[in-house]
User: Fold these one by one.
Assistant:
Number 1:
Amino acid sequence: MKYAIIVDVTLRQGISDPEGATIERALPALGFTGVSDVRAGKSFRLNVEADNEAGALEKATALAQRLLSNPVIEDSRARLSAEG
Amino acid sequence: MSRIGVVVFPGSNCEYDAASAVTQLGATAEFVWHGQDNVDGFDGIILPGGFAHGDYLRPGALARFSPVMNAVANFANAGGAVLGICNGFQVLTEAGLLPGALQKNRGLTFLCHPTTLIVESTRSVLTLMATKGQELSIPINHFSGSYTCDDKTYEELVANDQIVLRYKENPNGSRDDIAGVSNLAGNVVGLMPHPERAMSLLLGSADGQVLLSSFVSKTLSVR
């Protein structure tokens, strides 16, 4: 089976996020108030061959930790894509 | 004569400067293509600046999987002198050969200007011939040069004298003004500033000489 997976990569809590901070500072000028804790990150979409959902997520989680993220500063999370 | 391998990844762009600098100091330099799976016969290895593999994903993230990096890791673990400059520093942290990581600069600007560095440790292969507290004028040229690590790693860096160089004035948000670190043994060093671009007073500064002279002399002594 082929599963569509999304991997989200975000900076770990406590690691400064200059992009997120810059976006947050820009929002009030555009009229968007009441928005806080903006964190910038990356999203990857992949098709993963596996016997079942759990196997696909396991494979995606492993490759996310090995390549897609730097675990020293980033967290990664694999999830099934709702859109397929 | 010391024989230094300068690793060339697709996208490296400081390899000629690095080779020229160590040649000026009496070593011989040879380029090592990233697809090569050994670094046999070299006395020291330099990972130069640039944008290895386009810096795609993260700086150094793909370069660490280049075939040559297994050989560099074995060379480093056997006590060989390894120096990562700028992008090379990023590659060494991604490869786990140096602690911590390099993040986008505070302020999100590409920085290209001279900086004043302070020598913090003379235990590393890059600073053996420098003196503690010595100030050096060395340029930086980077977008992702803000050194970061967790508290535990930071405490280990301090306790083990692994902080090699600090900025006198922090340009990029680096933790505790860190410009360069070494591994525990001191034979692997990474720094964001470019000592190979500070080799001649005519071009602004010759302060890179004391750093690269240390590196070249060390490659001779471990042979």
Number 2:
Amino acid sequence: MIAYLIRRILYAIPILIGVNLLTFALFFVINTPDDMARVQLGMKRVTPEAIEKWKEQRGYDKPLMFNTQAAGSDKLTDTIFFQKSASMFVFDFGYSDDGRSISREILTRMLPSLVIALPTFVLGLMFYVTFALLMTLFRGTALDVAGVTLCVLLMSISSLFYIIGGQFVVSKLWHWVPISGYAGGADSLRFILLPVLIGIVAGIGSSSRWYRTIFLEEVGRDYVRTARAKGLSELRVLFKHVLKNAMIPILTGVVAVIPLLFMGSLLTESFFGIPGLGSYTIDAIQAQDFGVVRAMVFLGSALYIVGLILTDISYTVVDPRVRLQ
Amino acid sequence: MNFKLVLLWTDAMIFLLLAVALAGAWLIRQRPHLLLPWQRLFRSRIGMVSLLVLSLFIVVGLLDSMHYRVALPDKNGNGQTVYAAEVLSVFDTLVGDLRSQNEKTYSAPMAVYLYAKESMETADGKILREYPRLKYGGAHLQDPQNEHTGDVLKRSLYGLFAGWLGGVLLALLVVSVAAARSRTTARQWVEARQHTPLNAVLASVILLAMLFGLTANLAGAYHVLGTDKVGQDVLYLSLKSIRTGLVIGTVTTLVMLPFALFLGIAAGYFRGWVDDVIQYIYTVLSSIPSVLLIAAAVLMMQVTIEKHGEWFSSSVERADLRLLFLCLILGVTSWTGLCRLLRGEALKLRELEYIQAAQSFGVSSMRILSRHILPNVMHIVLIAVVMDFSALVLAEAVLSYVGVGVDPSTNSFGTLINNARLEMGREPMVWWTLAAAFSFMLVLVLAANLFADAVRDAFDPRLNRTGDAK
Amino acid sequence: MKSGLLRINGLVTRLHNGARIVDDVSFDIAPGKTFALLGESGCGKSMTALSLMRLLPAGIAIEQGEISLNSKDILALPEREMREVRGGQIAMIFQEPGLSLNPVMTVGEQIAEVLALHQGIKNSAAEARAIGLLQQVGIPDAPQRLHEYPFQLSGGMKQRVMIAMALAGEPKLLIADEPTTALDVTIQAQVLQLLRDTQDKSGMAMLLITHDLGVVAQMAHHVAVMYAGQIIEQAPREKLFAQPLHPYTQKLFAALPDMHLKGQKLAAIPGNVPALGEAAQGCRFAPRCDQAWALCHEQAPEWTVKSDGQGVRCHLYNGRTETRGLRTEGMEQEVQNGATPHSVPSPQHSVLGSNYSVLQVKDLRVYFPIRKGILQRTVGHVKAVDGVALQIGAGRTLALVGESGCGKTTVGKALLQLLKPTAGSVNFSGAEMTGLNPQQLRILRGGMQMVFQDPYASLNPKMRVAEILQEGMDALSIGLNSTERQQRIDVLLDQVGLAQNAKWRYPHEFSGGQRQRIAIARALAVNPKLLICDEPTSALDVSVQAQILNLIKDLQNNLGLSYLFITHNLAVVEYIAHEVCVMYLGRIVERGLVEEVMRNAQHPYTRALLSAVPRIDGDRGEVIQLAGEMPSPAKPPQGCHFHPRCSQAMDICRAAYPEASNVNSTHVVHCHLHSGNK
């Protein structure tokens, strides 16, 4: 088990290097820092001096991979690759275009992201599983058909519609909660209510339907027939036998997502003006702040790998058959 | 009229895809066992009706993918024909005035007056702040106050009736031609198809024809779905958006499929270091949150495009290249899922006895991949492709909102929503653009989802064993 | 049968499309007795059992009939009371113990559930009772096993747990649906013994569902034979085995391979079992019956009970037997399957007794590495095949016998170089096959081919029969051009008894037996000298198995093929093989001519194996019960691999693996009991 985990963590290193090289190539090889500067400063009438200044301010005035002019180890370290990419391995993300420390920004913005994402995740999971169980219990009946139809309909609606529609009805027509904004402390409840609700509703269609498929697959298995042959009631069969087995794919599936909750939701945070990582990302994309985008890419993939490892661990917790080798 | 054909990159891709689909259909018709799941699909009522709706969207998309530039009346100094800078499509020509009849700014659906008040000089020289009449919407009415409702009703009924008539005629035509080809009477032909979704399809044809008649008849005199900020007809914009949605939903697949297919089955079949390398590649790619990867790639592409302005002869081509590139990036981010699925399937298949039989003949690996593994994973590919379509259409809207979607000048549901979003705050509210974009998208995605379900039911061997066992 | 415990009368169960999968089934079960429902796959026997549990899958429903348990109408019970019957009055065990237990609940929890439900026993009392039950079904270390999960138990143990779970509700009737089909013979013997003991002790009745006449002979008091949804014959066991009345029952007995039938053709039943609910006018067996006459095809026979109580559904016995003279009219048979019923003297022994060996294998080893730790270093090996030597003469059949997991299939794959042998030599007609590159190997490939176990997985569903047959010819460049290959395909189809029109059809249009014919034709396409047959008949029904065995023998006689016949079925071995190798845990423990090994087995394992096979003469003999199950090849026991299960184990058995000892020039055994003969 320990050996397995160490191996998984070691395996994460080449993956992160791969991610790093990929983003490096994407940002610095396809286009030169000069091109980036030109676009940032506006294409027209850009003086070479302005470009140089832009590059210098952001540390893009160094050679890409290898600095022939520097001495000693600086030959490797005093380069864009080392300064901008390699340093990310120690979570040193540098500064954004407006001169703030990206690392500090990430730390302060994680909390608001989590405040929205975590309740959405937990309540959503509970709701989807319950809904899927109900559909499974009434499988083959009109209720099941109606449930599935509802799911297909809900999953055909754009997530933008859920947000825009939700804001319009709940906030603008009914004035129940503020349209957008965020405050810390107890006051935050008013602000997070709507985004969480919308987040849950937007996921009903695809999640519930997916879980229903899993439940139905389990219901068809032989051990379920055995349980019925024992004389257990349908409810007991469903809750004691089927649920326990179906939770294995469901739980291990969602565990992968948990670390990514830190990243927040792009749309929700941006529409509701929540100062989390999602809106940070979206602002960076729209402002073409390459430093922040690169940092978020790295953070995202690091969290994804944590998710993969957690998934493996969760298997051993919920499934007695799995022993990690 | 002189014109010059313009083949945009995405047009080429769409027609390539169409050719592939037609070739596939021809191939399938030759092989009864390949036909079997399709026959199951054709027996699904929901599947057929949603396919009908989808095919309407596809027709619009295809018409909108045949581009040309019209010759200008004046020749240039050297006597050569000069073509207009504007790239038009066959669809633009067909809808005619819908494209060109622009108002000044917003107007509500079916409105006769503009949304915003303007200063107008009355006959006696006074300046009034009034809602002015629209230039085109309801322009034929003398007295809009009294005639408007009646005219709309009259036109609606007339349109519905004409549509119904057209639909019925079309249905009769289809049935009699089909009956003639199978040498039976129409009645026998229909009765022989009691257990097929024929009736549902014919009914949908008539309903859709009625809807078409209604819209067409009203659109001649009004802006059925209103106009947007610069006065463009929203119905026209929505219809133009369909092509973008289809391109994103299909071309992306076309781009990613070869990779996913080959790498997936190669990883599963060969295992060992091949598997390790391929797994490494897709773990790296899937570990980056897809929106961020797309954003990073699109940002970089923007820089490249701006640097090489000389590549493009028109803004349409430029926007088109961006669309194509978006498809490429979406393809890169979305192939990993299918690849993993195919790898798993190939791992299972390689242990099957018919593969071992082939190995014991010394059949080459490439041949085993192409003759034994590939045909037996195609159903998974098909299911994945139709399932992905709707997700991609939905993703386009989100990406455009984030600012890394299609070019702002490209008509798409995303740009429509994005432009209209800010108008929600106005009083009275400008709701129609949003409503139109969301409704069109809902119908498209819903039809695609329902069709995907029908395809899965027909093709998934786990769900349907009747055709396979014994 | 007046005091029936369970009484079923006129039971009809239908698919939602109206097809009757159980059609007018009636029988009684007396308390304490075992009633066997015998039939081939798809005949409706499991559906009958599920009907009386009222546990039919969705889309299948009971249409009419009466089922009463202790005179209580089960079909009229509300679902709530029915739940008390399930598990409490009637318990059921299933074919696949591995799938029938909940994988994420401990054994104890699963038993406790029944105790709480039907006995009202909970908590520590339940635990004590559960331990008692586990001990009762012969599970060692019961207190520990209670907290284990099903995956930690072997197949036989799981079936014991299933039985313990069934006993927990103290039912009056136990339904056992193919309880031993998924198990090896030695384990089957243990489980059957357990079922008999339990019945003796508790006095419960048993409904035994099986396709195996041997199991019926050992277990049943009363037998009903089912065919295509109907009971076609019903009698006390002794009567049925002494004098089967229905032609189908007679054929079932005749189709069993056996030593006595060596050199004769088996009485295969032509054609296939009809598909579920396939509507038929007349007798359902008529199309396959060689005694059918016109009436059989027109009118369904009534149930006839003879004066001695033996019931049968056949026109031969319904009093109008005088019409039998007309029966030749209806004898148009599908000659396609070539089932000429009785013996054709075979020339094999005279022609094929040559000493020339086609295949000579020495010290074949196939090891799979076990990797562990951070760097995945190899820490040990699973020795799936550990030093196997064998040789096969031209035109001879060598049977490789062993239980699942002994490595016999691995041997077959290693011979074909589908798996790379770790060590050893495979000499095929003078050429060494190991260590060749793919090009060199390809030249030799045509000589040796394989026929696989599962006819459903061995043919690519996306290829036509002609394409399947042509693949090997293309790969090995056999036949000069496509016309020649097409002609060869026609010849091949003819050889394996398939019609020419099969060429352009796809595998899914064929039944299991026909698919196996195609698989054989595919192997024959490249003119092999040796066919490796890996359990070619174990997925087939008895009647179809006989067809395939006949075909395999015919091909040997006509083409002079050699076979390596890998199987666990000793009856088939007796019938088809010339020599036998018995394999245990990666090694061959005994080899010799078939008569020597079958009649005069020397190794204790071979003896136990032979004694465990249920015989149809109902002779329960002394079954040599083997303790425990085969250990994992990753950790074979020290010394003789068999010693932990051997009743005759001595000190030396624990210390050293026995060398080969010759019983005579052809008969070799690896056992310390015989090391004096060396």
